[in-house]
From TrEMBL, chain B:
It is found in: Cell membrane. The gene is ftsE. One of its GO terms (molecular function) is ATP binding. Belongs to the ABC transporter superfamily. Its main location: membrane. Part of the ABC transporter FtsEX involved in cellular division. Has ATPase activity. GO terms for biological process: cell division. It comes from Micromonospora jinlongensis. This is Cell division ATP-binding protein FtsE. Keywords: ATP-binding, Cell cycle, Cell division, Cell membrane, Membrane, Nucleotide-binding.
Length: 291, 220
């Protein structure tokens, strides 16, 4: 009976002040969606780093006047370098072939370039792609070396952009969370005021503190949970419409977000939503109920 | 005991000592601001004295932790000048509410509430709302609510303050009947008529001091 009483009080409470409840749930939902999105992004960026860095190459281009001796020396040095996992030598013909493949849509460009003009190069796979700098320092002044190009520097730029998007989402989540907290506090104040007679009687006849507070706290928790459910719906919709829809062209570039990832992030959203609302409501009651 | 409120120039209660036996009926009288209500608040563990001890039902409540207060309150019934009924609940529901919020089942309420409403003379009016009842009837509901849990002590803070003399007498008869069941009744009042008619113990307080404590007193 007490559980039933508390639950019915929660529903009555949410309904009594329905506009405020809706505002509370919406801000909570937006905040939690942002939180969930930045959480997904975090995993996404990690996945992508794994994927990309595994395939990354460092290219050491040789200059046109490189001698046979210099080339063999460099080849030997690279093969014995502990940082290097694989070495692939690309001669001028091979380079031309790759060039033709890459620019097959621009025959004019291909025709304008002769195999002789393309530099020979060593394509390296590193044991640890982040040690690019060491390779660069070590070989940049070696005879015959023209230029060292590292793909990971390009990727770093992309990942910087992704990380800043992630930070923006997190910042938006925090700002919305503050708004949600203030709304929770306000809702609880209004609820405590509209039930002040009941609360006074309950205190007078000796109802236990948890019994007086539970409906208010649970009201906030229920709002938080509904908010997190809406956030889940928003994330599912985002996956369905954006990633599988209009952004599907980028599928090769972005690693896919699985339904599992979204389901994995939901408990986090629900937990944060529920706990934060409960704590806010409880603290608000400390000030406005003085039980 | 002594109680000084912060910012007050003089103590609200100044070295007051009073002892009330189980089953007694005591009036606290005195002008406004004399400290009568402070005594009620101390008995309810709403305020604590700065000096001295408050003992209720054989338990020292002076330093009782606030989380124990709810359980302590269940042994004390309270009636006020302004009734403090819930306007959106019937007489029955108002009394049942007091039981249900302390964890009694609806079945218990169904058995006990009609009984106590009968006792206070509201048989047949269980399903009226407060606004459909007269002032005296509303106060009877309040008394029923205070008494339904069979408290050891009934505190009444000017219970007849809003009632006409005839109705006041009826409420006093009701409190007297409750007192005869063995419940200690402590009543704060300004109503000289009632005090003179009842001829019970009278404790008069003025400026925080007891100026009179008389076994079968009148209003002075």
């Amino acid at each position: 009976m007490r559980v039933k009483y508390v639950l019915s009080e929660v529903l009555v409470g949410l309904w009594r002040n329905v506009t405020m409840s809706i505002a509370m749930i919406i801000t909570m939902a937006v905040s939690l969606t942002m939180l969930g999105a930045s959480g997904l992004m975090y995993r996404q960026v990690d996945d992508m780093k794994d994927l990309y860095y595994k395939n990354i190459e460092v290219s050491i281009f040789l200059n046109q006047e490189v001698s046979e001796q210099e080339r063999t020396d460099l080849d030997g040095k690279l093969k014995n370098d502990p940082l290097v996992k694989e070495v692939l030598y690309v001669n001028k013909d091979e380079a031309y072939k790759r060039f033709k493949e890459m620019y097959q849509d621009a025959p004019d460009l291909v025709n304008a370039v002769k195999p002789d003009q393309l530099p020979e190069s060593f394509r390296l796979k590193l044991n640890n792609p982040e040690q690019y700098k060491n390779i660069y320092d070590q070989y940049k002044d070696t005879a015959g070396v023209d230029e060292i190009v590292d793909q990971s520097r390009l990727l770093d730029k992309i990942f910087n952009i992704l990380t800043s998007i992630q930070n923006i989402a997190l910042a938006a989540a925090i700002v919305m969370a503050i708004a949600a907290l203030l709304l929770v506090a306000n809702t609880i104040q209004v609820a405590a005021y509209s039930k002040r007679r009941e609360v006074a009687v309950m205190k007078l006849v000796g109802a236990s503190n948890w019994f007086i507070q539970a409906p208010f706290v649970l009201e906030a928790v229920v709002a938080g949970l509904i908010g997190s459910l809406l956030g889940l719906v928003a994330l599912v919709a985002a996956k369905y419409l954006l990633f599988d829809g209009s952004l599907s062209a980028l599928q090769g570039l972005l690693s896919p977000i699985s339904w599992g990832d979204i389901l994995f992030i939901f408990p986090l959203m629900a937990g944060v939503g529920g706990l934060v609302s409960a704590a806010t409501a409880w603290i608000t009651l400390r000030f406005y109920l003085r039980v | 005991m002594t109680k000084t409120y912060p910012k007050a120039s003089r103590p609200s209660l100044d070295n007051v000592s009073v002892s009330i036996e189980k089953g007694e009926f005591v009036f606290f009288i005195g002008p406004s601001g004399s400290g009568k209500s402070t005594i009620i608040k101390m008995l309810l563990h709403e305020v604590a004295p700065n000096k001295g001890r408050v003992v209720v039902n054989g338990k020292d409540v002076t330093s009782m932790r606030s989380w124990k207060r709810p359980h302590f309150r269940r042994s004390i019934g309270c009636v006020f000048q302004d009734f403090r009924l819930l306007p959106n609940r019937t007489a029955y529901e108002n009394v049942a509410f007091a039981l249900e919020v302390i964890g009694k089942t609806k079945a218990v309420a169904r058995r006990v509430v009609p009984e106590v409403l009968e006792l206070v003379g509201l048989g047949g009016k269980e399903h009226r709302y407060p606004h459909e009842l007269s002032g005296g009837e509303q106060q009877r509901v309040a008394v029923a609510r205070a008494f339904v849990n069979r408290p050891l002590i009934l505190l009444a803070d000017e219970p007849t303050g809003n009632l006409d003399p005839d109705t006041s007498i009826e409420i006093m008869r009701l409190l007297d009947r409750i007192n005869r069941t063995g419940t200690t009744v402590v009543m704060v009042t300004h109503d000289s008529n009632i005090v003179n008619q009842m001829r019970r113990r009278v404790v008069e307080i003025e400026s925080g001091r007891i100026v009179r404590d008389q076994a079968r007193g009148v209003y002075g």
